[in-house]
Write a structure and sequence with these properties.
By secondary structure, this protein is of the alpha+beta class. The chain has a four-stranded mixed beta sheet. Helix 3 runs antiparallel to helix 4, helix 5 crosses helix 8 and helix 8 crosses helix 12. The chain has 18 helices and eleven strands. It has a single domain, classed as Orthogonal Bundle (Cytochrome p450), CATH 1.10.630.10. The radius of gyration is 22 Å and the shape is globular. The N and C termini lie far apart (about 50 Å). The chain is about 50% helix and about 10% strand. Bound molecules: protoporphyrin IX containing FE. The site of protoporphyrin IX containing FE has 26 residues, from helix 12 and helix 18. One of its GO terms (molecular function) is steroid hydroxylase activity. InterPro entries: Cyt_P450, Cyt_P450_CS, Cyt_P450_E_grp-I, Cyt_P450_sf, Cytochrome_P450_3A. Monomer.
Length: about 450
């Protein structure tokens, strides 16, 4: 289809997807950009292009290593304690409620803590400036008709939109910018061992790092799904020449990344998993048994024990992401004229991977509408055709936060299911209505009951 003069091609053929994401990567390095992203969002790795993207990805890869994530695990557990306390009240009252709202608050707390170095309790203190600004950040998307206009006539609309005054945007950016700069100034005054071990600190540590890695180590998604636990890419590959250090604007941009890349997707994954467990009580029972066994063996969950000790939880999450992939489509832009399986693709074309369609194709997934975690046993995964399951994308530009995203979802479900079970109630919407504004999400929340165990 066309938007103005720009051609979009939607593909769901696995071999063609492989060519775009992996084999022809040098022609398809970038996602589609509207040209409208402004600082600090534009400085986040999601929107960087070509050489600078490669340099920044290379530096950031170390901030997402299993060792670093292990250091962040207690911060996530801390935020989870607040969530547990809020859910306890619902369990005691026996009332039905929208758990998506609770997950929204929880994700805000995690982002504040892990990315912005600030502690908040958004459920209890919704008036906190951080919480307010996050809400406004998500409510401030570009109206659809304007977006179509921008994509159709970028040469006129982009410069226009950039210079038009936008008080709300400027105020939001300045709030987050100031917040991060203040935290960084404070860290500079602290001794190394006093500094909080959060993502912001990992990025600050990595910014001058010589231990950056080359493009051949970028595909973390493949490493994760081949079940490497302690593999640190920077240990496996020869470090490259250090790239240009991250500027202060770029550090701020990476903290923003959490808001735009992680927040909504993690919230939605948790909501979908909760809905599926409540509506599939047999699967939930089996999972509860696994959780109890895990807790008997492990006092405090660590990154590595979480990777190995909860195989059924892995299967439940994988099947949740198959049925409801929050990033249900993503794009690459053709940098030059090229050919894909005999089809000519002109330079500038945007190729869109139709992940939602792929995950519901009965040729790859028999009875695609059924929730069946057995599709993800090790054996079933070995037999599956490659490039038919893409919740995190694939290739060198695939999700950089896959380990962190899975860690957050697993750790949260582990904590919740240790204390509660999910139950459907008359208010539960079955089947779940969906909405696909930015990420795929439940349209009307997820109403359930929680019962103490
Ligand atoms: C369940 C959770 C998550 C899912 C399903 C998910 C999914 C995705 C998908 C589909 C993409 C596009 C991949 C492509 O273009 O091939 C992506 C990119 C990305 N994600 Fe995630 N994501 C998750 C969590 C996170 C988290 C928590 C972070 C960390 C902040 C994160 C950081 C990123 C980054 C940085 C990119 C862009 C990488 C680049 O351009 O080099 N993601 N993610």
């Amino acid at each position: 289809y066309y938007l103005g003069r720009r051609m979009f091609i939607v593909i769901s053929e696995p071999d063609m997807i492989k060519q775009v994401l992996v084999e022809n990567f040098s022609s398809f390095t970038n996602r589609m950009a509207t040209g409208l992203e402004c600082k600090p969002v534009a400085d986040s790795i999601l929107f960087l292009r070509d050489k600078r993207w490669e340099e920044v990805r290379s530096v950031l890869t170390s901030a997402f290593s299993p060792e670093k994530l292990n250091e962040m695990t207690p911060l996530i557990s801390q935020a989870c304690d607040l969530l547990l306390a809020h859910l306890k009240r619902y369990a005691e009252s026996g009332d039905a409620f929208d758990i998506q709202r609770c997950y929204n608050c929880y994700s805000t707390d995690v982002v504040a803590s892990v990315a912005f170095g600030t502690r908040v309790d958004s459920q209890k203190a919704p008036e906190d400036p951080f919480v307010q600004h996050c809400r406004r950040f998500f409510a401030s998307s570009i109206p659809k008709p304007l977006l179509v206009l921008i994509l159709s006539f970028p040469s006129i609309m982009v410069p226009l939109a950039r210079i038009l005054p936008n008080k709300k945007r400027d105020e939001l950016n300045s709030f987050f910018n100031k917040l991060i700069r203040n935290v960084i100034a404070l860290r500079d005054q602290q001794a190394a061992e006093e500094r909080r071990r959060d993502f912001l600190q990992m990025v600050l540590d990595a910014r001058h790092s010589a231990a950056s890695v080359g493009v051949e180590s970028f595909d973390i998604v493949t490493q994760v799904f081949s079940h490497e636990c302690s593999a640190n890419p920077s240990e496996k590959h020869q470090p490259r020449h250090p790239s240009k250090p991250l500027t202060m604007d770029e550090v701020v941009g990476q903290a923003f990344l959490f808001l735009i890349a992680g927040y909504e997707i993690v919230t939605n994954t948790l909501s979908f998993a909760t809905y599926l467990l409540a509506t599939n009580p047999d699967c939930q029972e089996r999972l509860l048994r696994e959780v109890d066994q895990f807790n008997e063996k492990n006092m405090a969950p660590e990154y590595c024990s979480l990777q190995e000790g909860l195989p059924y939880l892995d299967m439940v999450i994988a099947e949740t992401l198959r049925m409801y992939p929050p990033a249900f489509r993503f794009t690459r832009e053709a940098a030059q004229d090229c050919e894909l399986l005999g089809q000519r693709i002109p330079a500038g074309t945007v190729v869109e991977m139709a992940v939602g369609a792929l995950h519901h194709d009965p040729e790859h997934w028999p009875r695609p509408e059924a929730f069946d975690p057995e599709r993800f046993t090790a054996e079933a995964q070995r037999c599956r055709r490659p490039f038919t399951y893409l919740p995190f994308g694939a290739g060198p530009r695939s999700c950089l936060g896959v380990r962190l995203g899975l860690l957050e979802v697993k750790l949260t479900l582990l904590h919740l299911l240790s204390k509660f079970r999910f139950e459907v109630c008359p208010e539960t919407q079955v089947p779940l209505q969906l909405e696909s504004k930015s990420a795929l999400s439940p349209k009307n929340g997820v109403y359930i009951k929680v019962v103490s165990r």
